[in-house]
């Protein structure tokens, strides 16, 4: 090769490397794909949109909807599915677990890259004790069923709310709640170590918001928090919560287990009293989160660690609520326009300089009465679990007993519907009190029937 050719090659390599340095690297991100909306696009359209137009390369769904799972076939997008809390005890039976895999996984895998099976949602928080006690055995039996049929790439986990922490301030003092630590979380972490799977947590800084902590919650410049015990300074609450989880794991002897952010996000709209729920703050949090995750910096106590992360959520969902906060966690509107721009689009789609405030499709809780009822597709097993939880938490269940005004119709769904609403009303009509591990929904039509009058 001539000297001139060498120089041409060197120049080409130099320009190519310079291009790599100058072009911003946008890494992948996961998203929670909820479906509580009557105006959402079909799953096949969603899957193709994500593949063709975004950097989203993994989704988590809250059930095992076959239409959604099938829609992601051959897209290369990782899909994590969820088993309802009420079905957990049944999964401790190896025969049932094998049947579950044959029904819900085998028809779709590996065309659809099923990544994780989430056994329940925030089980320790929601209970009841029977479900909590069966969680680890169910995870073990399900994992064994997957291995038996050769599905070794599919991992098993269970997402946890940060109510598992006794405290998170400062992180060095963090511990898991007494009773859950040794009895439940240590066996869960042992399972994750043995199966090389991730421990899933849901760290929402939105729920820790206060005006004086706004910048700290939103990845904006702030004075930070100093942890004297470790000598580390925290400049955002996300790092603080993640290190609190890590310290708690370390105190149980499991600092090596991977941590997965199963849910986190910020709403772009909210009820009038929640002025911090707006597009600017949502863009600051989720945009800052992506930069944090993709930087590879890790946290003060976990330098260099990356966290598989799922933003909540993909779409604004108009059937959630009754608060506007719950309806407006989406990155996209149902027509696929961005609510705000955080750099996850492949193309040049842009939002208006002043993003539109989401328009409420239903009245907020201050404008009318609302009731809590089960979602249409929830199993009787899950609903019976809700009944057991409610009746063990101080709610009067006598109206659904024989002779009571709500005994007829004598079905699990009818009884659960009345009692879920009773719990929701008694606890102050907060959205989370109608969640029941994603099995409840808010209704604006009175479900009362004959002599069975629902509390409102």
UniProtKB/TrEMBL annotation:
<keyword id="KW-0611">Plant defense</keyword>
<feature type="region of interest" description="Disordered">
    <location>
        <begin position="345"/>
        <end position="369"/>
    </location>
</feature>
<protein>
    <recommendedName>
        <fullName>glucan endo-1,3-beta-D-glucosidase</fullName>
        <ecNumber>3.2.1.39</ecNumber>
    </recommendedName>
</protein>
<keyword id="KW-0472">Membrane</keyword>
<dbReference type="GO" id="GO:0042973">
    <property type="term" value="F:glucan endo-1,3-beta-D-glucosidase activity"/>
</dbReference>
<keyword id="KW-0449">Lipoprotein</keyword>
<dbReference type="Pfam" id="PF00332">
    <property type="entry name" value="Glyco_hydro_17"/>
</dbReference>
<keyword id="KW-0326">Glycosidase</keyword>
<dbReference type="GO" id="GO:0098552">
    <property type="term" value="C:side of membrane"/>
</dbReference>
<keyword id="KW-0378">Hydrolase</keyword>
<feature type="signal peptide">
    <location>
        <begin position="1"/>
        <end position="28"/>
    </location>
</feature>
<keyword id="KW-0732">Signal</keyword>
<dbReference type="InterPro" id="IPR012946">
    <property type="entry name" value="X8"/>
</dbReference>
<comment type="similarity">
    <text>Belongs to the glycosyl hydrolase 17 family.</text>
</comment>
<dbReference type="InterPro" id="IPR000490">
    <property type="entry name" value="Glyco_hydro_17"/>
</dbReference>
<dbReference type="GO" id="GO:0006952">
    <property type="term" value="P:defense response"/>
</dbReference>
<dbReference type="GO" id="GO:0005975">
    <property type="term" value="P:carbohydrate metabolic process"/>
</dbReference>
<dbReference type="InterPro" id="IPR044965">
    <property type="entry name" value="Glyco_hydro_17_plant"/>
</dbReference>
<dbReference type="GO" id="GO:0005886">
    <property type="term" value="C:plasma membrane"/>
</dbReference>
<feature type="domain" description="X8">
    <location>
        <begin position="370"/>
        <end position="454"/>
    </location>
</feature>
<keyword id="KW-0336">GPI-anchor</keyword>
<keyword id="KW-1015">Disulfide bond</keyword>
<dbReference type="Pfam" id="PF07983">
    <property type="entry name" value="X8"/>
</dbReference>
<dbReference type="InterPro" id="IPR017853">
    <property type="entry name" value="GH"/>
</dbReference>
<keyword id="KW-0325">Glycoprotein</keyword>
